[in-house]
Amino acid sequence: MHANDLRDEKFLFTPGTAVEFDVVEGDRGLKASSVKILDRGQARTAATQDDEVLCDVLSPRELMQELTEALLEAAPTLTAAQIVQVRQRIAKLAHAHGWLES
User: Fold this and answer.
1) pLDDT digits (tens, 9 = 90+) for 16-37
2) Residue 76 DSSP class
3) What's an example of a GO molecular-function annotation for this chain (predicted)?
4) What does 18-59 look like in DSSP terms, one character per residue?
5) Residue 69: its pLDDT value, please?
6) Helix, strand, coil proportions of the chain in percent (round to 5)?
7) Which residues contact 63 (CB under 8 A, 6 or more apart)?
8) Residue pLDDT, tens place only, 71-93
9) According to the model, what pLDDT value does residue 73 have?
């Protein structure tokens, strides 16, 4: 497979990501083409069928709770405003990478 065959943002393709693809004849034999990430519902169904779960996906609320606890433990002098800023930025990052449930 060539990187140009990836149909979604390249940074979204990480080990364990469920994908679908076409199989085509390449110069050196069969290869994957038109590779795209399965939507979350399909990916979860596939993982359940294979009895393999690669990681937990948190709800936004679960992430905020765990993150707040971790921040308070690591840096108890943070103000509430600082914690809110950090949480908002991390939530934006997590959403961009698909690390949160919708």
Assistant:
1) 888 899 999 888 888 888 999 9
2) T
3) DNA binding
4) -EEEEEEEETTEEEEEEEEEPPHHHHHHHHHHTT------B-
5) 92
6) 50, 20, 30
7) 90, 91, 94, 99, 100
8) 999 999 999 999 999 999 998 88
9) 92
